[in-house]
């Protein structure tokens, strides 16, 4: 898979192309489901003088523009990914917090039908599978 054109993505989302934004997009792309601290470390390998604030600001702008999706499993720090164009879900390890992508079995949103919509127009079901990852289950 060739590297996506991050400059083009920023322009298409009407975001100004800045070095921190490019570096953050690149870092989220290469480290899917990383938390903010890991992303700051990854961005600093490309831009050593970037501030924490610049990374936070870029993450917010990219998330608002839907170039980046944030995942917030209960009890875990926010994680980020650039796979925003499908309705995939996540499986989270209760023990070590590892996160993996799970393709949606239905494929389109919302993939679960609510037993009672209460009159709402429902456009998404947020699904997180919880369990124990292979590494952790060997250890117990
Ligand atoms: Zn685990
Ligand atoms: Zn994912």
Kindly summarize this structure in a few lines:
35% of the residues lie in helices and 15% in strands. It has 140 residues and is an alpha+beta fold.
Strand order, biggest sheet?
1-3-2
Radius of gyration: 17 Å
* Tally of individual helices: 5
Main pleated sheet = 3 strands, antiparallel
Roughly how much helix do the residues carry, as a percent range? 25-40%
Task: List its traits.
140 residues, alpha+beta, three-stranded mixed beta sheet, 35% helix, binds zinc ion
Structure, described:
With 140 residues, this protein is α+β, with helices and mostly antiparallel strands. It is built from 5 helices and 6 strands; from the N terminus they run ααβααβββββα. α2 packs across α3 and α2 crosses α4. The protein is globular. The chain binds zinc ion (2 copies). The site of one zinc ion has 7 residues, from α5.
Topology of this structure?
Layout: H1 6-12, H2 19-30, E1 34-35, H3 36-46, H4 52-64, E2 69-71, E3 79-81, E4 89-93, E5 99-102, E6 128-131, H5 134-139
Residues 32-33, 81, 83, 88, 90, 101 line the site of one zinc ion (ZN).
